[in-house]
Amino acid sequence: MPDLSFKQANALYIHFPFCSSKCPYCDFYSVKYSKKRVDLYWFALFMELEELSQKVDNNLLQTIYFGGGTPSLVPPFYIKEMIKLIRKRFRVTPTAEITAEVNPASINEEKIVALKRAGINRLSVGIQSFNDHHLSFLGRESSGEKNKKILNLVNNYFNNYSADLIFALPNQTLNELKKDLETLLSFKPPHISLYNLEIHENTPFYKRYNRGELKLPAEELDAEMYEFALEQLTAADYQHYEISNFAQRAYRARHNYIYWLFEPYLALGPGAAAFDGSCRSENIADLNHYLKYYNPEKLSFKEIIENNQLLDSVKKFNPNPEIKIRNLNCLSKKEQMAEYSFLALRTSAGIFYHQFYRKFDLEFKLVYKDEIKELKSSKLIKEGNERIYLTEKGKELANEVFLKFLLD
Amino acid sequence: MQTEKIRNFCIIAHIDHGKSTLADRMLEYTGTITDRKMQEQVLDKMDLERERGITIKAQAVTIEHQGFELNLIDTPGHVDFAYEVSRSLAACEGALLVIDAAQGVEAQTMANIYLALEHDLEIIPVINKIDLPSANPQRVKEQLLDIGIDPDEAILASAKEGTNIDQILEAIIERVPAPHNGENKALRALVFDTLYDSYQGVIAYVRVMEGSVKKGDKILLMSNQKSYEVDEVGFFSPAMQKKDELSSGEVGYIISGIKDVRNCRVGDTITLKNNPAKKALPGYQKVQPMVFSGLYPTDNADYEVLKEALEKLQLNDASFTFEPETSEALGFGFRCGFLGLLHMEVIQERLEREYDLDLVITAPSVEYQIIKKNGEQLRIENPAAFPEQSEIDKIKEPFVTAEIHLPEEYVGQAMELCQDNRGDFKDMQYIDQDRVTLKYEMPLSEIITDFFNQLKSKTRGYATLDYELEGYKESKLVKLDILVNKEVVDALSTIVHDENSYQQGNALVRRLKEVIPRHMFKVPIQAAVGGKIIARVNIPAMRKNVLQKCYGGDVSRKRKLLEKQKEGKKRMKQVGSVEIPQEAFMTVLERDENA
After folding, report:
1. Closest Cα partner for B55 from B26, B34, B80?
2. Would the keyword Phosphoprotein turn up in this protein's UniProt record (chain B) (predicted)?
């Protein structure tokens, strides 16, 4: 089977595909949480890690990210063991950013502390809103009060954390967003991700949207909300360093930044994708399939750890060669240039011509000569010192900009 | 076959009363088709026909039963093909009138009865779907009595379950008259349909009225005096089966190396060159397209592909015309002529499906006669080609007599709709207690402007519509221009009645606002008559379009989403700096419910 070849990968993503209930807007892969399957899954993850470590050598991990799904459903000591094994198999810089996504509905003070002890040094908290009505519309099991309580706790134990907020919800008023922002800013989170509600295919919201049962706010209001949020966050000293992301100085999301820089990354778990700079390898989003491939023993994770048998058990892995668990997709040079361009343009830094040249051996200004001219004249991008970047207007109409960088 | 042993019949029915199912069942029962895996409804051959549940092309099949030759001719079921229907009926002596046992006599049933009587056909009523729990054959029999058909002659049947198919076949043999015996006369064969085959050329579907024809004969088409040598004759079973000779009373096909369907038109009479008949069979008409629209490839590079596709479609369809046309907005394309709206839709769908073409289709138009002040006379079917208002003395447009059959309770709404569409009331007749036929004289241009859809929606689908061309009459018409971003888009121009121009201009710019996407800049949409702006709306500039989340595993998906957006833009037509989607060119013909 053809596979990725990593010269250098500095990021590792680990997917935890379990949720206690599925949010109707979410299109990430997840299944219903069950303790038994989580144990099996955790062994399988160790096996994939083992397998991966044999393929990749001499990597220096700068970021590790536990995403989901709902990683806060995993007992923290599972995560601790995972980080331990990662440190055994890979070089990890002492200053590595190690993030876990947490859902306020499935976390408490004890878990927060335990996660910190496990080696997590950054949390990404799925707040989404403080408004009970909107939270329940989004299928979130938390409440406004609970969200505040959790943020307080997180604030107590973590210097570095991020909070997600969703806006442009059906019937949401500008005033409601204002309240959400005020509440969030009162905690001074070091990092904020701000998304408008997007309707993705294969979600319950998509079906409702197509049936006309779900109406998103008008484009004007959506834009007004975004502009309002930008003002508030800038006034509160946040840097708008990526289209949907805001950070206080020094608290940018280092893991995500690797994606936006089109740098390689490793990935574990069904539905997760790894990238080696030109090819992407995506694990098929099917837990049963994944478990069949690694075929872990049906053991209790706790007992294995207590008996110090983890490594023996993991080393027994003997994947089933009949089963294909990942799809490899190699990008053409044109696709690479398009992805590089629209990813880099998401960041406030934009595209540096010399970086583009180093990657593709082509002059950015020649490849996209007409596009740059057109976008500049419509004031969607600006040209700086050997780089282009989105204007404020360009950030709101980013797709119109990105389209120009797709090559036929 | 001796004529006494031949029966020629068709099946007529209101839509969905089970015409095609009954035909299939008869074929199965008589062993004409044995293949168990036959596709449902053998006689409707095109996918489109099956999907829409309508018959577009006539079909014929010969059934052998108890020593008799029963020729079933399946007729198209839409007003656009009224002429083809009339030729199919002219080829028969009898008709099965199929009525749904639950629905009863419908408006179209009446229209069918009149049609059958006009062609002097023996009518055999079949009350179908008696298996339905809601079936009420007794009520249908009473209705038959009301409309002057002997209910005792009706056969109760279920085509779906195959009940009483034998009785129907028996009735055909006993009640449908044998064809008139004209074996000693000169050949006269009626062409009731044609099909083009790339190997054999035109296959003419014929009913031999008199005389006979065989391989090697020199035939003559009486309308155009062209002659050909017969390569093959035969019948349909339902596949084509060679035969030595087709003789008086029989139904089958003639292949004679004709390369163009326009040389062998439906309704023409075939005779022998060396022994020609004195007179052609009555009723031949060269059908003329009544509805015109511009077809443009979205991508100008597809022009040649479109041309080839149109040529191929025309091989099979003599009633469809096309000629090259240029539009400032749309580039190079073709002005195409169709029998009616359904015919137009069918051709457009076939182009998009079978030839994978992305098309921009302009709103349908009729052919106008214009008399200029300098006396010059013009015939124009493209609104964009209209002369300046100031040069025009008179404009004439085609009028039709529209016959609407509908339940009495909807008469009010239907009359209102007709009046709104410049209809002139002519007559109203009760078919029975609660069924009515309305007659209006109306401009054809109104009929092709969403009229039928609105009629359907106002009568909850119960109304049927037939129309016949009356002739040209003078009307006070003006050209309504549409300006997008201050530029006239010629392909959006329409001809409207002067009195309605303000209202229609207003409605149209509002509809265009709904379908033209926002741009980076404000786009004004204006309607104008004779250079004077009569309506305006603005499409506000785009405010926000951004994919918010974009992380590791998602990047390729996002790129594909963007690629899809880009593809969508490509399918739009760039007019000046504005991208106009295909549907905008068709919204011209929609009407607002309340307008």
Report:
1. B80
2. no
A279 near B CB under 8 A: no
Residues in the annotated binding site of B for GTP: 16-21, 128-131
Beta strands in B455-531 (DSSP E): 464-474, 477-484, 487-488, 494-497, 523-529
Dihedral angle over CA of B342, B304, B204, B224, nearest 10:
100
Residue A161 amino acid letter: Y
Q: Phi and psi for A256 in degrees, rounded to 5?
A: -60, -35
Residue-range domains of chain B with CATH: 3-175 (3.40.50.300), 188-272 (2.40.30.10), 291-361 (3.30.70.870), 369-475 (3.30.70.240), 478-587 (3.30.70.2570)
**Chain B partners of A403 at a C-beta cutoff of 8 Å?**
562, 565-566, 569
Residues of B in contact with A402 (CB under 8 A): 547, 562
| Nearest to A83, CA basis, from A36, A42, A41 | A42
**How does DSSP classify residue B457?**
H
* Prediction ipTM score: 0.90
Residues A333-404, CATH architecture? Orthogonal Bundle (1.10)
Question: Which class is A11-260 in CATH?
Answer: alpha beta
What's the DSSP call for residue B550? Answer: -
Q: What is the pLDDT of residues B520-534, one digit of tens each?
A: 899 999 999 988 999
What Rg do the C-alpha atoms of chain A give, in angstroms?
A: 22
Average of pLDDT values for A304-323? Answer: 82
pLDDT digits (tens, 9 = 90+) for A23-39: 999 989 999 999 889 99
Q: What is the dihedral of CA B191, B197, B200, B202, to 10 degrees?
A: 20
Measured between beta carbons, the chain B residues lying within 8 angstroms of A264 are none
Q: What does each C-alpha distance from B517 to B493, B513, B579 come to in angstroms?
A: 20, 8, 8
